[in-house]
Write a structure and sequence with these properties.
31 strands; 6-stranded mixed β-sheet; globular; alpha/beta; binds S-adenosyl-L-homocysteine; single chain
């Protein structure tokens, strides 16, 4: 099963009192956290797998754990935690997430490492899991904004230079920030709250137009993010003193007039594919030097490297493999005939004679830059090559560290490489009210990068959403588009939740998601998939009228949009003959009005006119409406697509305002 807390593992939970231990225990089970307890609590009978005991002081124990944990959750006084961790804190870029939980588990405080450590997100997930209130004290979260220092994380961007603290502080005091985005996805821009501080300058993102072709839904949050604050975009004025640069370029030195904004921070989307060819046995050092020189000469940011591309003959080249390992870069290889299919500026006959392809570095870079996750395709770019082949040769006679020769070319991809394994979470959101969404489903909704659903359900889950989440809404009819969009984002590397009302696998989106995954030749592993069950309409409706489903029952949808009516009629017939209690989903729409009448006729052949019937509309929603009637009078009451109709069996009876189907105990 997928662990929604995997980003925070290894994860240490620390409790020193019995109440705190009791509160933290279930969370540790769900998250895979190790619960650290003083050895005085060691008790053979309650030995549990994920418990550890310490006999040194807590201070020493935390110091020993600190370097290896991604997150800590303390079930103890915040003051004590502050004293414990104070000597260990180093830098917010590297410190783990630290959250504090009060002994009864009512509040989860994100204490430290809130942004880059992921503490704010961690606290929100724990809160959903434990039904607690997250306490997030950072300014950006309270302004409904993603932290400027984490907004590129979902897309795998690398953080570059700049005074991040100054820019974060400017945002906290509600100053405007100029944004120049030259590379990477602009999705983050489209899901900002109305009063966001960003003023968008055209950073040449015209070439990102392909994004509008992704078939995405409508933005559920933002007003007009393209412009940000009106009237403050004029950089000639003195108002804006901060800039967010999202680029594959190396940051220009601050003293140059090209950088008039004093506080500029850089995010680098990984859009650059480095094509390489080399002599057999070329050393790592020569390759590193070659890349460093090219990137310097062309003012490119090395953080923006997506990966290395070459010919398949070089898939075992030691220097290239070492380079990829050292810098954690993927290696894409292509066959000679694939490379030959690409037009390149610098073909070479010598190379062709040697490896069968007239270009390695240039062609491989271009091909890698054109390989994008399926569903994310955009217009083909004719000139993705931004650095033509550069040749580096070590001086003659060099051996060892400086041996060999290498060619380097760079191509730019429209869609950044995220370096992440996507997740597709199929989430049932229950009949309506938040308290009927399971804690696991709530945690799933709070954890993902993107949420895709139908507008009504998105409104219902709004309180669970985090700032910075991509929330896309689709009309009720566009189920297929919803699923395709979600799969495309997940294949790209994002974690995505598809919401269905009720249960996701009962007339919901789960089945369609699996069918589409299969159509995409899904390998069963990437993206990772998990289904989160929800309370289905039949359970919700039944609970509002008593206990009508106490004996064998079935669900039948009266919608013949996807199922031939003859099939539905046959099922109604056998359910009636079999004396099943029946929950009718999709009972009547504006256009489909006859089906419910036919269903009634079929049941009247086999069941008494007096058979109790419940019509439950919008169970657990503000406009809930319940009617108890009989099979005979079924059509006298309003029935629509927001209703579920429950037909009793031959034993179901009405008792006051309740329906009961006896199971036979009496
Ligand atoms: N996946 C959903 C069903 C979707 S089909 C589930 O498991 O509940 C849509 C149908 O579900 C509606 O036409 C209606 O018949 C029923 N339904 C959904 N929510 C409901 C609610 N809150 N109250 C009553 N019926 C509901």
């Amino acid at each position: 099963m997928l662990n929604l807390f995997q980003d925070f593992c290894p994860l240490a939970a620390i409790a020193t009192t019995p109440t705190a231990i009791q509160t933290l225990e279930p969370f540790c089970q769900a998250s895979g956290a190790t619960l650290w307890l003083p050895s005085t609590h060691r008790n053979e009978e309650t030995e549990e797998e994920n418990r550890q005991f310490y006999s040194v002081s807590l201070k020493e124990q935390i110091a020993a754990l600190w370097p290896n944990q991604r997150a800590f959750i303390f079930g103890m006084a915040a003051g004590a935690v502050v004293r414990l961790i104070a000597p260990l804190l180093q830098d917010k870029a590297t410190d783990p997430a630290v959250v504090v939980l009060d002994p009864e588990g009512k509040f989860v405080v994100s204490l430290c490492g809130g942004h880059q450590g992921g503490g704010d997100r961690f606290a929100q997930l724990i809160a959903r899991q434990l039904d607690a209130t997250p306490v997030i004290t950072g300014a950006s979260a309270n302004l409904g904004l993603p932290g400027v220092d984490v907004l590129g994380v979902p897309f795998g961007w690398k953080k570059g230079a700049g005074d991040w603290t100054a820019v974060s502080a400017a945002i906290a005091s509600q100053k405007s920030v100029r944004v120049v985005q030259e590379a990477g996805s602009t999705l983050w821009q489209r899901h900002l709250p109305q009063n966001h501080p960003f003023v968008f300058e055209d950073g040449g993102m015209g070439r990102q137009d392909g994004e509008t072709g992704w078939g995405e839904g409508e933005n559920r949050r933002g007003g007009e993010p393209e412009r940000g604050r009106t009237g403050e975009g004029e950089t000639g004025g003195s108002k804006i003193d901060c800039q967010l640069s999202i680029t594959d370029s190396h940051c220009p030195p601050a003293h140059l007039p090209t950088c008039p904004i004093p506080n500029t921070v850089y995010w680098h989307p990984r859009v650059l594919w480095v094509g390489m060819g080399c002599e057999r046995g070329t050393s790592l050092e020569v390759m590193e030097t070659a890349i460093a020189r090219v990137f310097e000469q062309f003012q490119l940011a090395r953080e923006a490297i997506a990966g290395i591309a070459t010919i398949d003959l070089k898939a075992d080249e030691a220097g290239i493999l070492e380079l990829c390992r050292l810098y954690d870069l993927p290696l894409r290889t292509f066959r000679a005939e694939q490379l030959n299919s690409v037009e390149v500026p610098t073909p070479s006959e010598v190379v062709e004679r040697e490896v069968g392809s007239k270009s390695v570095a240039e062609a491989a870079a271009i091909l890698a830059s054109q390989t994008v996750p399926s569903g994310m395709e955009c217009e083909a770019v004719s000139h993705s090559l931004i650095v033509p082949k550069q040749i580096f040769r070590s001086p003659p006679g060099e051996a060892g560290d400086n041996k060999g020769a290498v060619t380097v070319a760079v191509a730019r991809c429209k869609i950044e490489y995220t370096a992440r394994t996507g997740q597709l979470l199929l989430v049932g959101t229950g009949p309506g009210a938040i308290e009927h969404i399971t804690p696991a489903a709530q945690t799933a909704i709070a954890s993902v990068d993107a949420i895709i659903g139908y507008s009504l359900y998105l409104d219902l889950v709004q309180p669970l959403c985090r700032p910075g989440q991509i929330i896309e809404s689709f009309p009720i009819t566009q189920e297929k588009q919803r699923v395709q969009r979600a799969i495309a984002l997940a294949q790209w590397g994002l974690s995505v939740a598809i919401l269905s009302s009720g249960d996701c696998g009962i007339y919901g989106m789960a089945g369609l998601a699996f069918e589409e995954l299969q159509a995409n030749h899904w390998d069963g592993e990437t993206p990772q998939v998990q289904v989160f069950p929800g309370v289905s309409a039949l359970q919700a409706a039944a609970s509002r009228v008593g206990a009508p489903l106490m004996h064998d029952f079935c669900a039948i949808s009266l919608s013949d949009l996807l199922t031939p009516w003859e099939v539905i009629e046959k099922r109604l017939e056998v359910a009636a003959v079999g004396d099943f209690v029946v929950a009718l989903y999709n009972p009547r729409s504006q256009k489909r009005t006859q089906q419910i009448a036919i269903a009634r006729e079929i049941f009247l052949k086999h069941r008494s006119r007096k058979t109790p019937v419940a019509i439950v509309r919008c169970a657990y929603r503000l406009d809930e409406h319940i009617i108890l009637t009989t099979l005979e009078h079924l059509l006298d009451s309003p029935i629509d697509m927001l209703s579920t109709v429950i037909l009793g069996n031959s034993n179901t009876y009405r008792y006051g305002n309740w329906l009961v189907t006896p199971r036979g105990y009496q």
